[in-house]
Amino acid sequence: MEGPSLTDLIAFPKSEDGCFSSNLPPVFAFSESPSTGLEPGGQGAVAELQIHIVAAVPDGPHGPVWLKPLGQEATRKVTPEYQRTEVERLVQVLQNSANYQDPNPSVLIALRLAGNPFSLAERKLLEGLKENAVRNGASLSSGKLGLYVLALIASCEDPTRLLTSAQGTDTAPDLVTLLSNKLGQEMKNIEVKGHPLTTYYQVALALLGLCQQRSYISKSDVNTFTQAAMHDRFSFGHQFSVDTAAVAALALRCLQQGSYKPAESIRIASIKLSLQLFCAKTAPGTIGNLYSTGLAMQAFFANDKHIPSVVWDCRKTLQEVLAQVKQGAFQNPESASQILPPLVGKTYLDVDQVTCPKDVNNRPVPVLPAADSGEITVDYSVTDTLPGSQYFNRSITLKVPGGTTLLQVMRRAQEKQPEYFKFTEIITSWGPFITSIADIEATDTARTYWQFLNGPLPIPVGVAEYQPSDGEHIVAKFTTY
Ligand code: B12
Fold first, then answer.
1. How many whole angstroms from 173 Cα to the centroid of ligand 1?
2. From atom 84 of ligand 1, which residue's Cα is the shortest distance away?
């Protein structure tokens, strides 16, 4: 039994957007210590923050007790009018993507969580996912399988007994056992090589899928994961990954709710991740960058014991996100799928709360025209200076119409000088991912990739979405993560 929560003592008025009132009672006045001068997400900042929180909050028998979990209440929340247009815009992006060749589980999860009637698009996606799972289940990565399991739970399907309309009486694959085996492979790799087979992002998704299914996860696997959190392993190339920490925080919250063991490690790791996420908030209101904010908001909603909405200015984040949705920043279905759940007050932990009525409803989606603003000049360089590699550095200057995407710029460069600028791509849930340039191939085994920079800054979206401005210098750099 937990002790009396703060909500039992103080009434926190909650407004219709799902955020709590930001009127902080004086006794809980909170300082973020901006004077620490530490990097967001840095250890020192976290420690400092922890001290403030511990000092400010009376502990219940199981640690700090702030507010009632938001998740349950938020699932019943009605989206306010001013948010509805943006939510509908995102739903349309998602429904439209159901026609893509490769069915995307994240899209189905988001549509199911949005609570709309079970649309034609959702049925199509569900059928596509089931068929793909039957055909290719064993070759899906751990994270992808985790998302499949979540999507099936959200659609009231049993992931242990898949039946497709095309299948008849064939043996139905058990996706949960498959997922459990994939997690085992990830854990083995961590043990032997010090890092997962894929990434901790995918390990977190796998744990989340198994946990939502209430499936067995060994104490030692949970421990390996919490240790990774405690030792700051959730990063790419030394850069703290907000996306990874957010999915990990969701997974840990699920493990906590499901009473998985070791409970104390789960509790401490989830406090640490919540604080690191809190330290990643930016002045405009995003947590990390715009595209990690959806997952981070979900992590905060699920973990508001650690970072209550009175401390995190939820409304500011919400306003920034809505403004960006309005400006068309979430046209990519994968990005829309990660931001939609928190805009309707939901998280991936709510997949088992979804009801599945039989209604059918699908709407056509307007296609936005591409902007064109005259001719622009773009410098494009390709460089590989990794230790042990053959030094490679080539540049080209191109004139292209304004509004041209980086992918089109790269194609133009490839046409002009194929020996230096030819490239290959694979299609992923986020769109085309560049796998090689000038025959220099990125591999998961060597943990190498082609990073794209605008001057010194990594571009925030993929090459198919990014539109360079006039005079920009784009660098494709072969690097490691
Ligand atoms: C892991 C990861 C990476 C790894 C992928 C390698 C690996 N073995 O996993 C590395 C570090 C290489 C990477 C690179 C990049 N990434 Co990345 N990545 C992620 C992360 C954290 C998880 C993706 C994942 O595993 N999903 C789960 C699995 C099950 O789904 P999946 O479809 O199989 O995942 C694959 C694709 O997502 C692909 N991938 C990863 N990143 C990107 C980015 C783009 C644009 C594309 C098309 C594909 C892609 O790699 C995954 C593994 O195979 C996401 C975070 C998020 N919120 O989704 C960011 C994320 C997708 N990446 C992002 C970006 C911007 C990039 C880069 C363009 C950065 C840059 N400036 O160079 C490059 C891609 C450049 C290229 N070569 O085309 C953004 C995309 C934002 C957007 N709106 O488009 C995200 C959302 C991070 C963020 N918050 O900004 N990434």
1. 29
2. 461
